[in-house]
């Protein structure tokens, strides 16, 4: 102390000294709108008054938080793995016990509490390879190309880490769909890579157009070296399911331009439209013949978080890698080993997803019923969402063919656009904040995912219970009509403001 004054040492880590790549990261799914929703929830809990009684969070694909029930068989197997004393209990079916014993045999000291190999437990990797072969109707899968990951996100970031290099015009460019899931833009910013946008075709149910890939690639070559093509199928936030022909076109493009393909297929179980079917990138690549199958580098991703299980908190996932240079593969193993291993309980949950009860096993009937019920309810909710939103003047919602989100286009009158500009925020952010403050509904503005200039959207999940979803959609409808009235005394609502 000098003359009664306390000398405060300056902080080492300030916004000036912070890694600039961290500052560049944005993640809308848990961004400002969600922080505001949390504040409103606290006010309600403390007895504060709002024009609604609860906040409905439709901002994130978190199935269990929205009331979806766990799949019994999955929880039984994980419980048995966690507490093996239960293997003697008559309350657990034999098929669950068999799976748990097999997984525990693959664990050091027969305990989920031991580290596994960095790539994951061997027998689980073998089960995943068998699952992929069955899913792809006999396309071979080598278990040594399977890596378990902490959710799909961790695998996606690990592969991007391998791919980012070069300086200036030689810097790696990563092609991502717009709208995209913001994990991609965040990882690209954090790694200092170059984001290359290709736009999905909203007028054509968010289809991927190969001409748009060519356009984006050629434009990007002026300032970076595009090396990676990311695909999300079924789409998030857009919910489209790609046709086989489209996937062929994309793989042909990647082959011609020598791009590494990353196929985010975490919603492969979530296909609702009767005229749509999931085709894995790997299977289509195989069917294109050996010239393609033996040369295009492909990493595909799956997860415990989505599908009919919705087990987000286990952080289980895997990736399969095809045609990776053997020396590079050794480098990937090295990189993964720094993080030791993915959560072993998450690996066990992943095993149940790829190795579910078979028709001749005791748990099959209940498992099948629970799975069908979850996916059936999601299909109904996908339809309901599109029907209610599309009937609102000034909202246009494409069919939700798959995944678990709708990404409707909303007309925002010029007056509200001007007001948002004056407040220094995106017009769809203003819209979503108003929606939250007036109705308690939390959705994410389209600007957090990317959208064509002059168009506005929001993303909402279709996970709430049918009753809650109906209330949510009707509240959105009433709010939107009121919002149009308040902001366009002289303007007629028109839906399309397409750039």
From TrEMBL:
Protein name (Swiss-Prot/TrEMBL): alanine transaminase
CC cofactor: pyridoxal 5'-phosphate
Pfam families reported in the protein's UniProt record: Aminotran_1_2
GO cellular component: cytoplasm
CDD domains: AAT_like
Coiled coil (residue ranges): none
Assigned EC number: 2.6.1.2
Source superkingdom: Eukaryota
GO function terms (MF aspect): L-alanine:2-oxoglutarate aminotransferase activity; pyridoxal phosphate binding
Protein keywords: Aminotransferase, Pyridoxal phosphate, Transferase
Alphabetical GO biological process terms: L-alanine catabolic process
Record family assignment: Belongs to the class-I pyridoxal-phosphate-dependent aminotransferase family. Alanine aminotransferase subfamily.
Transmembrane regions: none
Aminotransferase class I/classII large domain mapped to chain residues: 109-475
UniProt pathway: Amino-acid degradation; L-alanine degradation via transaminase pathway; pyruvate from L-alanine: step 1/1
Function: Catalyzes the reversible transamination between alanine and 2-oxoglutarate to form pyruvate and glutamate.
Subunit organization: Homodimer.
Catalytic activity line of the entry: L-alanine + 2-oxoglutarate = pyruvate + L-glutamate
